[in-house]
């Protein structure tokens, strides 16, 4: 299995520690200042891409010394730096893509970045956004197992399509059986597992799984 991780230009205080993922990730890609974050941590960079308008010349030199491939783009372009990084990730034929540093800051960028999970899933790739407070994964109809996670213990399900039909939650504090939720519904917000594992399933629609914690660790 091939795993690619992309680090974006989001607020650094929201980027989680990379140590739990070092052994899982085969290739690291830095988008704009995300490349400098990787370089500072001495993590090998497969691609460093973007317009690099958020870093200075000294920092660019450090990135170039760390990255296998450095590609600088004009600031006026059709894709965001993160989408360019994602296109590079697709070239590596991954099974999973982790996205770090893509939440917080400007809400327009954050919402667009979350929508990139749809682009990833449509290619048959598992895409996950992870920050200090949240774990986000876009799912398609089917049955999924969730294991107890001490870091992200709150579990929510957000309709990504206008309607999600047949949702069933088993092993949760608030179980559901064959229900329909729609845009604007808060019925599946802030649940928890009632045991070490649980399952969720649904028949139609697209569902965003969000696991979260209550506060950023100090």
Automatic annotation (TrEMBL):
GO-annotated biological processes: thiamine diphosphate biosynthetic process; thiamine metabolic process
Record's superkingdom?
Answer: Bacteria
Domain Thiamin pyrophosphokinase thiamin-binding positions: 142-208
Coiled-coil residues: none
Q: What is its EC number?
A: 2.7.6.2
Q: Does the keyword Transmembrane apply?
A: no
Alphabetically ordered keywords of this record: ATP-binding, Kinase, Nucleotide-binding, Transferase
Keyword NADP tagged:
no
**Which of the seven top EC classes does this enzyme belong to?**
transferase
Q: Which GO terms describe its molecular function?
A: ATP binding; kinase activity; thiamine binding; thiamine diphosphokinase activity
In Pfam terms, one family for this protein is: TPK_catalytic
Q: Which InterPro entries match?
A: Thi_PPkinase, Thiamin_PyroPKinase_B1-bd, TPK, TPK_B1-bd_sf, TPK_catalytic, TPK_catalytic_sf
| Protein name, entry field | Thiamine diphosphokinase
* Organism, as annotated: Oceanobacillus zhaokaii
